[in-house]
């Protein structure tokens, strides 16, 4: 089995970059707000505003979850790469000691 540790670390770094973008998106979206009277002051407009506000909140929450998951994925990618490197070093040392 052959493992490309450099590519594994590169993928982990891309996950970190994606996590950062998700965080920035969530931050920007959370700073935006929709006024309660922008659609008018009658029941259907208020209902629409409520649905829009709920979707807005859900998008922010989902972006925050993506940020977390992508960060964890990056962590796992780097940890796995390190495990392979350490295992390869141990195996090489074991072979050298036998020879």
UniProtKB/TrEMBL annotation:
It holds the Pfam family DUF2563. It comes from the Bacteria. This is DUF2563 domain-containing protein. It comes from Mycolicibacterium sphagni. The lineage of its organism: Bacteria, Bacillati, Actinomycetota, Actinomycetes, Mycobacteriales.
């Amino acid at each position: 089995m052959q493992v490309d540790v450099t590519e594994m670390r590169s993928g982990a770094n891309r996950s970190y970059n994606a996590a950062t973008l998700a965080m920035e998106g969530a931050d920007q979206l959370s700073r935006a707000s929709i006024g309660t009277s922008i659609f008018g002051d009658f029941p259907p407009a208020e209902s629409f505003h409520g649905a829009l506000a709920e979707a807005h909140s859900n998008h922010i929450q989902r972006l925050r979850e993506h940020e977390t998951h992508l960060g964890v994925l990056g962590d796992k990618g780097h940890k796995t790469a390190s495990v392979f490197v350490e295992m390869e070093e141990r195996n090489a040392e074991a072979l050298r000691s036998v020879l």
